[in-house]
Amino acid sequence: xxxxxxxxxxxxxxxxxxxxxxxxxxxxxxxxxxxxxxxxxxxxxxxxxxxxxxxxxxxxxxxxxxxxxxxxxxxxxxxxxxxxxxxxxxxxxxxxxxxxxxxxxxxxxxxxxxxxxxxxxxxxxxxxxxxxxxxxxxxxxxxxxxxxxxxxxxxxxxxxxxxxxxxxxxxxxxxxxxxxxxxxxxxxxxxxxxxxxxxxxxxxxxxxxxxxxxxxxxxxxxxxxxxxxxxxxxxxxxxxxxxxxxxxxxxxxxxxxxxxxxxxxxxxxxxxxxxxxxxxxxxxxxxxxxxxxxxxxxxxxxxxxxxxxxxxxxxxxxxxxxxxxxxxxxxxxxxxxxxxxxxxxxxxxxxxxxxxxxxxxxxxxxxxxxxxxxxxxxxxxxxxxxxxxxxxxxxxxxxxxxxxxxxxxxxxxxxxxxxxxxxxxxxxxxxx
Length: 432
Ligand SMILES: Cc1cc2nc3c(=O)[nH]c(=O)nc-3n(C[C@H](O)[C@H](O)[C@H](O)COP(=O)(O)OP(=O)(O)OC[C@H]3O[C@@H](n4cnc5c(N)ncnc54)[C@H](O)[C@@H]3O)c2cc1C
Prior knowledge:
The protein has helices spanning 14-25, 53-59, 62-68, 105-118, 233-242, 248-259, 261-267, 312-333, 342-371, 378-386, 389-397, 414-417, and strands at 7-10, 30-33, 47-48, 75-80, 83-88, 101-102, 122-124, 128-135, 138-145, 148-155, 157-160, 170-171, 188-196, 204-210, 213-219, 224-232, 271-272, 277-282, 285-286, 295-297, 303-304. By secondary structure, it is an alpha/beta fold. Strands 4, 5, 13, 14, 15, 16, 17 and 18 form an eight-stranded mixed beta sheet that branches. Strand 15 (213-219) and strand 16 form a beta hairpin. It is globular, with a radius of gyration of 21 Å. The two termini are 15 Å apart. The structure holds flavin-adenine dinucleotide. Flavin-adenine dinucleotide is lined by residues 10-16, 33-36, 43-47, 128-129, 161-163, 165-166, 169, 190, 228-230, 282, 299-301, 307, 310-314, 316.
């Protein structure tokens, strides 16, 4: 088995697998490393905006997505206190994909990674990148797995797609202290549950606003409803004090039920499907660019919006698209990956990233701060009650129907137009 590649990608969420598919489609040799075994559930609202669906087609999983995902999301709701404000979502100007849909991460992430493997990407799973160092023009990653010897991989391009909710792989200069900031009252902790037989209107995407937090609910695949929300640490502590003996998830859920009547109506007779999941604290913000020649970040590792807009997967897939477009175009001009002008490529990717995603981060920050303070936002709620179509406008500003200027099927995009290599024997998962 070769241990030297054109690119190593750390993490097989939507960002990492999108990058792997795009680079492999353009003839790059790619290794992707994922610490968890798939399929795995993940804290996420699981709504995929319409803007991504042509990209999923181009990535080669559109048909499977169509077959599995929940109903078209045609309306947005705001559930706050006793209020339920409902408005149309804006449709995307596309012949087949006008509306977003929801699909469990245990399905979406598995489909994307399987597609990458079928294109010849070498998948190391479950393996954790515990360290990376730069040696001349190559990055060396050390992959760990309990009970197995370490594996070392080398590549001139290292893509950070490891998300933002776990300690980043240590490079030689980071210390343990940099990974563990002290607890703060304003830390955001996220929870998710899935319900069977919830009473949620098909095609409605309710956003939840409650003191100290916000969230969303959606009917996804297999008739299952996902409830995902964030809550500040101090609000969670108050909820736990009010519900002694409850788990953190149960106490937080009780707080949501008490503050959003629409949630109670939807889940009262529903059955919890699987366990509650939790992550945190989240750290919304921009983490770009990554210092170091030939290193790039995509998805949450590059920057994370408050999840109130449900645009995290869009940013993951679309930032991977942007970066790989740059990488493939640069190598198409020269020959060896090591000859790419990483400095100018990094600058140009960073510019494209900021112009596409920084406004979404800012808008999400404003929305989340308003949502967490429904009393202070009362005048805005009155406006929304009177003109619900302001929500439609908000969804448009959030980027729900905008495609980050990406050439999804353009013949001029080398990552799409390049011939797709046949799968090789080495393309199978490492531990099967
Ligand atoms: C409550 C909540 C609701 C949300 N709702 C939505 C929504 O409805 N729609 C939407 O689009 N977005 C939503 N999001 C955001 C979305 O979940 C994220 O933005 C998205 O998962 C980011 O994708 P990613 O590929 O960058 O990272 P991730 O999906 O986090 O993937 C990173 C992968 O890297 C792996 N990894 C990490 N470290 C290592 C390592 N050292 N070695 C190997 N592998 C590693 C992890 O196991 C993981 O599989 C929500 C988020 C939250 C918290």
